[in-house]
Amino acid sequence: MSKPTSIKTTEAVRDRLRILAAERGTTITELLEELATGELTEAERAERAAEAAQELGVDYTAQVEDAGRSAWEKIRAHQSGTAA
């Protein structure tokens, strides 16, 4: 097991994390671990996108990357209700 450490944040954020953790029946530490391991880094996202393109037989070019990014931006806009 890793050595415990501290993360500085505001009291409001700490309190919110405490509530979220309690609602999920877990601890703040476990909640943060879930977040940190559940989110991909930019490098991991790029690697997965390249792997997916390869599986589809598509050359992963800058144009393909831009088209994918644009598509996700449109999807997020629709999900948040900000799409034109």
Summarize the structure.
With 84 residues, the chain is mostly helical. It has helices at residues 11-23, 28-38, 42-55, 62-80.
Q: pLDDT below 50 for ≥5 consecutive residues: which ranges?
A: none
Question: Roughly how much helix do the residues carry, as a percent range?
Answer: 55-70%
Q: Termini separation (Å)? A: 49 Å
Number of helices: 4
Q: Could you characterize the architecture of this molecule?
A:
This protein is an all-alpha fold and 84 residues long. The chain is 68% helix and 0% strand. The protein is built from four helices and no strands. The longest helix is centred in the C-terminal third of the chain and has 19 residues, at 62-80.
Fold topology:
Elements: H1 11-23, H2 28-38, H3 42-55, H4 62-80
Keywords:
84 residues
